[in-house]
Fold this protein.
Amino acid sequence: MDTPFRDSHHVRDDALSSFTQLRQYLNTQILGQENLVLSLLVTLLADGHLLVEGPPGLAKTRAIKALAQGLECAFQRVQFTPDMLPADLTGSDIYRPEDGSFHFQRGPLFHNLILADEINRAPAKVQSALLEAMAEHQISVGSSTYPLPALFLVMATQNPIEHEGTYPLPEAQLDRFMLHTLVDYPDRTTTGRIMALARREALEGRTMTPPPRRMSQEIVFAARREALSLTLADSVADYITALVDATRQPQAYSEKLAESLRWGASPRAAIAIERGARALAWLDGRDYVSPEDVQAVAPDALRHRLMLDYTAQARGVTAESCVSELLRLVPAP
């Protein structure tokens, strides 16, 4: 007769095996972007949202499509444009003349995985509608509120090259993204592999190889519970809070940092680092969170939450360099 202890180990092993297979599948479909694949899985495990920034043509859209292929879920891509309306995301009430009633027609936000392509091209009202969905897993239309699916992940993309016709994301919305991941061009060898993959898919008449099997949402929820139950030592928890506090009190560590940082990170940043570190540890098959997990997730969790002084920006200081300096100066356990 199986004991609850054995049952819990069986659930963990099954979930970890499923995520390992999903990660392997994604890495065969998105070549040269292992960091993006890992960020997607960490965000999925931590029940967060992901902002991806990089030049065009680096498989950002393909990545979220491949993730949707590997999960039993509904996927919707939304191309953000300056003429969008909130109803284009949320849906709207449709009048039925036959009985004089209104019927709510659900919008694309009622899917599990959402690709918000070029999110910074949408005006403030549209971004505000998306903010409510990301923050509260619900949308409001008129006087009615509608819950979103339990599994709900937004992956938004930004193009750092072209800024004409764009609207900078407000700090409140940036803070709702758990991670901000940067993607860059692959090397020469990987580019050749991408060419071969594209040619093979064209010959086979398909845009992506389907996975061996799709992972159920129940496995995702079980994995999330497992990640939340990992051991987090008090010293590692204190390290997370120290990193976040250092963004608000940089003068305690460096005069240069104090001159560069205008605003620090919110408590949501500490939650993002903790959840992300737990996800990394769980994906690595460990039952505890290490300081190395915290250091690995901190750059993506902090870079979009730090506001730099204008003079620092003029000197070429970046949020990336500030996070690197913080990781160097704040002592790890």
Q: What stands out?
A: The two ends are 42 Å apart (CA to CA). The longest strand covers residues 91-96.
